[in-house]
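Assemble and predict.
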Amino acid sequence: MRLSRRSLLTGTAGLAGAAVVGRSAKAEGARSGAAVDAVVIGGGLSGLIAARELVKQGKTVTLLEAKSTIGGRMVNQKVAGGGVIDLGGQWGGKTHYRLEALSEELKLKRYPSYYEGKGVFIWNGKSYTTDLFNDFWRSIGFSNPDDIDLPEKEKEAALQLWNELFEISKSISVEQPWTSPNAQVLDATPVSQWLLERNAAPLAQWMFGWICRGNGAQVFEPYESSMLHLAWSMAVAPPNETAEDWLFYKGAGEVAKIIANELGSRIILNAPVFKIDQDSSGLTVIYGDCKTVRAKTAVVAIPPPLRLNIQFNPPLPPRFVQLMRRTPMPSKWKVLAVYPTAFWRDQGYCAAGSGNLDVLEQTADACPPEGNPGIIASFVSGNKIGGFSQLSHQEQRALVLKDLAAYWGPQAKEPIELVIVRWTEDAWIGGGYGVTRSTGAWTAFGSGWQDDHGKVFWAGTEQSTRWPGYFEGAIEAGLAAVKRLNAVLA
Amino acid sequence: MRLSRRSLLTGTAGLAGAAVVGRSAKAEGARSGAAVDAVVIGGGLSGLIAARELVKQGKTVTLLEAKSTIGGRMVNQKVAGGGVIDLGGQWGGKTHYRLEALSEELKLKRYPSYYEGKGVFIWNGKSYTTDLFNDFWRSIGFSNPDDIDLPEKEKEAALQLWNELFEISKSISVEQPWTSPNAQVLDATPVSQWLLERNAAPLAQWMFGWICRGNGAQVFEPYESSMLHLAWSMAVAPPNETAEDWLFYKGAGEVAKIIANELGSRIILNAPVFKIDQDSSGLTVIYGDCKTVRAKTAVVAIPPPLRLNIQFNPPLPPRFVQLMRRTPMPSKWKVLAVYPTAFWRDQGYCAAGSGNLDVLEQTADACPPEGNPGIIASFVSGNKIGGFSQLSHQEQRALVLKDLAAYWGPQAKEPIELVIVRWTEDAWIGGGYGVTRSTGAWTAFGSGWQDDHGKVFWAGTEQSTRWPGYFEGAIEAGLAAVKRLNAVLA
């Protein structure tokens, strides 16, 4: 096994092209001294899409990115065996129409994610080979409950609570969740408390923990957020619409690279923004080493909690700030294990694993179509990152490999490359993914969450009401911000 | 009744002296161009104390304050009838020895808070005249339970839970709460869930809500934070040590004024800090309109969530950032109602009221010793501020007066001045008071909370393990930061 020697977060090499273009030229605003039509803050997918759309419309644009690389959490990287991995998001979903259209436009080929063969469900150390679910709301983890040899009563009780969540999610207003039926009570009820009220057994408790931490538009512990927020998450990113349906041949990160190259010198890297001053004629954005860009409008496309890293003048509304302070950055790391081949496929498996393991609660097949090299994607999710991140990298790897082997056998312990992407340790990203609202935050402080701030327009996937936390939401939010911004420019 | 026409947050007038001194002169660092020994960020009590201590020790100091006034939440103001109010904190406690010593040193006279006569407890609209408690852990609100005509069983059940909290609080490590017995379980249990587990009746639920929102070193809703954090709050600020024991004749804000005048031109107002760059020889602090101060060390004495408003280079440790993002700014407004005399005293009351009212869950006598003018202090606390802040100021006043009258009769509806201090609407303060940690944050991300960041030393009352959220904690934390800093300067 070759341990990757890459430190922390990599992927810079593959993006050198875009980076050099960005660095070597002054951006339009800086060059001319005149105000650009829009400054875009944040070079993740949402900011890139907003900038690209503005350029298409003939607007002058400067994009400021705090990091030395573009793409945010949309970053691909070559790995051993001739493969490509995505360090952040990678899948397209069945109903991710905007992402699909974008891939067509950029001429990036896609292929269906591999779901042939059996999955595995692990409960208290015992492994069950199972069919995959075909209805998410009748599944346990990724598995068909009929194939899991646990007491029928416990499974049925868990699925009943599952169904209750599904029913609540149907009643949620995605734009104004605080107006949903019973919103006050649901938002004052932590998920863990809701489960206690219903005498949930350990299986149901784990299933809810698993979905809170892992699946959908959110990452939180069941005690950290409310039933209203969980139901909202299910409403904005319906898990039965197969969010992990297809993949990019070259990795999703290719999308960011292509758009960054299109934008070229409009991008300024290493440009963290400190301050946005608004006046009657526009904005002055102060960044980096006290440089300024003058702009008529701004699109802010960074994760919501990071907005508090910018000093706004006039200041953001107090309730909006209170909401942001109750929108903690979710904790998620990605694991990518690369093998010579997708050995599990030969054994009739598709690498869709789930279960109550110590570190990895789910795995998925993330190979190229032919399974060569074999790649398994997994996650370390939620508050366990607090303790896990204090272990040495070697200890982390050992625990990850132990769980991979529990799912897929001893061969899984011998990857040719193992990449752990520690997103919470990237200062300009801070974690992932999606939106977590603290219990009660939606109903107390939520009502201004979609309000732009003068000529500052919010983008970023978390701003979407359709697949926030996903690429699809990033595109939607970027385009929507441009649409609102145009009303000011017009 | 004369409605005060002061907008939002006032108190600037009374501080004009200090402000002018600060504005009119360049600070030492700026003047000489050489590095000061320490830059202090934040001009609340903790920062003022740190700066004062450094000056006493012969160090060169620059204090940067984001606002145009000094004192943070330690601000006094003249009101109708010749009285003085404090817009933020005002009381000293029985065991607030540092604050007591400071008042002696500054020659500021104190007097005992007025607790003669009866209190009032209101439950579901019914008012009970009661003796005050003499043991907090045998009290309901501020009242002796024997005087409250509710079923003995319900009162006893509530007091049993009260006692259970008290017992847990004794087992908490104030420095390292995550190492306390049963810490993992306690921290994964929202207070509201803990109450549900014990079938708490409405009275007990309210009592816990009341203490979470109001009394001690924290302000949060029972569903927002954990039993571990509540018990920690009780351990660091024991409510049976009478935290509201005495008052300053001239108002507590006088302390800040005197120290600010001592510091004189070392203070720079209107100087929000954007960035702190550290290198081997010291720090460069960038503030205001991209001005810089060079310093050997820094004391950061601002509320913890506001630290995220500063860009640190090197960045703050990821777990520390995760913790700060799970330390939302508490929501509390202060209400001060001024009357010609303390009419309640003539009726045998001491204005200590508590109860499950819509807006004001507690009131206290805040008069000068002779009760002339009469002043009642109260609070709007917790998430109700979310909705309350959306009402017009006139509507807010009407609701406040309604509750004041419920406690103290129709005369309470006729103040000669009514001041509502909307702390959450002050962009450079953001709320108050004390420390709220989201459920689970202590155990997942807490362990570095006291670690300084290179040559940046944390102060601010919230950093203390003895009376955080109080003046006492502010002094302790300011002095402790200087002590640690001296190890670097030496």
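The radius of gyration of chain A is 22 Å.
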